[in-house]
TrEMBL record:
It is an enzyme of class 3 (hydrolase). One of its GO terms (biological process) is DNA recombination. GO terms for cellular component: cytoplasm; Holliday junction resolvase complex. Mg(2+) 1 binds at residues 7, 141. It holds the Pfam family RuvC. GO terms for molecular function: crossover junction DNA endonuclease activity; DNA binding; magnesium ion binding. It catalyses: Endonucleolytic cleavage at a junction such as a reciprocal single-stranded crossover between two homologous DNA duplexes (Holliday junction). PROSITE patterns: RUVC. The lineage of its organism: Bacteria, Bacillati, Actinomycetota, Actinomycetes, Pseudonocardiales. Keywords: Cytoplasm, DNA damage, DNA recombination, DNA repair, DNA-binding, Endonuclease, Hydrolase, Magnesium, Metal-binding, Nuclease. This is Crossover junction endodeoxyribonuclease RuvC. Its EC number is 3.1.21.10. The gene is ruvC. NCBIfam families: ruvC.
Amino acid sequence: MRVLGVDPGLTRLGIAVVDGGAGRTVRAVAVDVIRTPVDDDLAVRLLKVADGVEEWLDEHRPEVVAIERVFSQHNVRTAMGTAQAAGVVALSAARRGLPVMFHTPSEVKAAVTGSGRADKAQITVMVTKILGLTTAPKPADAADALALAICHLWRAPMRDRMAQAEARAAEIARTHRARLAAAAKATRIRTVTK
């Protein structure tokens, strides 16, 4: 499976493509940062993000897009820009019919480092080791994008199994309710006919 990982941001948007193989095998395909000038109007910056993401989607043809879920931040303006950039990425993926998965920062940290409280330096070190890179990806936004793709590749099979189990449980519950209703109806009919 090929995953486009995105660490959303308006000034710097980390973007990476990782291929997943059997088990936990992962391979980095590409990584970069899409930058927009802070002096540009918001609409122009979002357009530049969209154009950059579209180029990546055209070039790398991912099967799924994994985006970091915007979590509460102290700076509301930064949070808004991050959320808007994430929305542009999700829209670009949706236009192509690609599934979009959102992962919380703690999910990504836990998947890659084993701790949901890891710092950016720990994430960079682990991403470098996991992918067998000769140099650490920089800036941190690039490492975070790689971590998002890895997180998705490692968690997607578990999510799929959970969804299948939930669907089976729901079907069993429906069948059970139908049997109970049929038994209750049969009991009522026998009672009336006596």
